[in-house]
Amino acid sequence: MKALRKTSIRYRLAIILAITLSGLLLLGAKLLSPQYSILYQQQKVVQSAVSIAEHYYALYQQGELTEQ
C-alpha cells in the first residue's frame, strides 16, 4: 500500500485505467461468447436450407422435377 502512495498520480490513474479496460474486455468477451454460438448454429441451418434448395434446383435443371 505504501508503494502506491509513493507513485505519481499519473501512474496510479494509468493502473486504474488498465484494470478497468481489462475488465471491460473480459466482460465483453464473456457476453459475446453465447452470441457467437447462436450465430454459428444459425449458419448451419442456413447452409442446410441452401443445400436443399440447390439439390431441388439441380433436379429441376435435369428435368426430373417440374415447377408444379
Short summary of the structure?
The termini are far apart. The chain has helices at 2-6, 9-62. By secondary structure, the protein is mainly alpha-helical.
What report would you give on this structure?
With 68 residues, the protein is mainly alpha-helical. 87% of the residues lie in helices and 0% in strands. It starts with a helix and ends in a 6-residue tail after the last helix.
The overall strand count is: 0
Low-confidence sequence ranges: none
Tertiary shape: rod-shaped
Distance between the termini: 80 Å
The structure class reads mainly alpha
Residue-averaged pLDDT: 90
Radius of gyration: 28 Å
- Percent of sequence in beta strands: under 5%
Task: List its salient traits.
mainly alpha, 0% strand, 68 residues, 87% helix
Annotate the secondary structure layout.
Layout: H1 2-6, H2 9-62
